[in-house]
Amino acid sequence: MKIHTEPDAAPPLGSAAEYVAQSTEPVEVIDVYSPAGAALYHWLTRTDNSEVRELVSALRHAPGEILELACGSGRITLPLLMHGRRVTALDSSATMLEILKNRVQKTVPIKAGALTAIRGNMADFCFGKTFDAILLGTSSVSLLSPNDRTSMFRSVRSHLADHGRFLMTSLEFTDEALYSGPKDEIIDRLDGPERGEVLTLFEHLDNEARRRHVSIYCQSPNRRPRIFTTVTEIISLDTLRKEIKEFGMRVHSERGISTGREGRLDVLLECEKVQ
Ligand SMILES: C[S@@+](CC[C@H](N)C(=O)[O-])C[C@H]1O[C@@H](n2cnc3c(N)ncnc32)[C@H](O)[C@@H]1O
Questions:
Q1: pLDDT greater than 90 at residue 8
Q2: Which residues lie with the beta carbon below 6 Å from any ligand 1 atom?
């Protein structure tokens, strides 16, 4: 089967690749965080409130301005604004930031003045000021390579106020899920944003490379099939704890947030600067 691949898109693996191979039409392979992927990502997460209650509550300990890294279309940003917080929201995708700003204008226009939306790289940013709280939710730390994590931690440390908090979530897999559970699964099948469109979500675990591949196969009556892909790192909590320490911070508290899936726990790490 002919495949058209975007430069940044990862090749689909496992049963996602089989779907592509079985298609009678050419399939376009698109990065989930590309402009076309951002709209789909927003559609998929529009009613997802995982982490929101826990993060809003934990951030009460750091009452000043929040720097939110990898804010996306505002799944966490909007609730923070609604709770009266000032947020500088950073993302590398201009499309995600556009969706975020439109949502704020549409749903909470009175809070628009409390939001600063910035396009940038969470692995290397410079605002020339510090924040009482820095947030990296949705396990988005897993989008960074080890080198990029190093420079993200360095940037975070230099932007954290002396008594500020850095909150980060990370998806932790049990050994059983990683080494004896299924490596390749269809995790959901649901309607897409367009009429008659069907989305199939796949997860493929590569435990040797410690990578998780997520693919969304999109079948629509009106257009050629597309598959949206992303690859994340599987990072152990021990590795993150070590890196946090290496960059002059310490873990103040840790708590698990249920993901609703066996063998996977979302862990919220609340960190502070070591003076
Ligand atoms: C898993 S989404 C999370 C978005 C949002 N926090 C949420 O809960 O819906 C990851 C986000 O990270 C952004 N992203 C990926 N790499 C990035 C980078 N190096 N710097 C900044 N943002 C990045 C993507 O554009 C995407 O919006």
A1: no
A2: 33, 45, 70-72, 75-76, 91-93, 96, 121-123, 137-138, 140, 143
- Looking at the chain, the number of H-run helices and the number of E-run strands are 8, 13
The pTM assigned to this predicted structure is 0.97
Q: Which of 30, 31, 33, 34 for a ligand 1 pocket mutation test, highest count of atoms within 8 Å of Cβ?
A: 33
Beta strands 27-31 and 3-5: pairing type?
parallel
Amino acid at 38: A
Q: In the chain, what are the domain boundaries?
A: 3-35+175-233, 52-172+236-273
Determine the pLDDT at residue 181: 86
Condensed to tens digits (0 to 9), the pLDDT of residues 211-241 reads 999 999 999 998 999 999 999 999 999 999 9
C-beta separation of 216 from 199 below 8 A? yes
CA pair distance 34, 86, nearest whole angstrom:
27
Instruction: Look at the block and give the residue holding tokens 């500020």.
Output: 164
Distance 137 CA to ligand 1 centre (A): 9
Ligand 1 centroid to residue 25 C-alpha, Å: 31
Third-level CATH fold of 52-172+236-273? Rossmann fold (3.40.50)
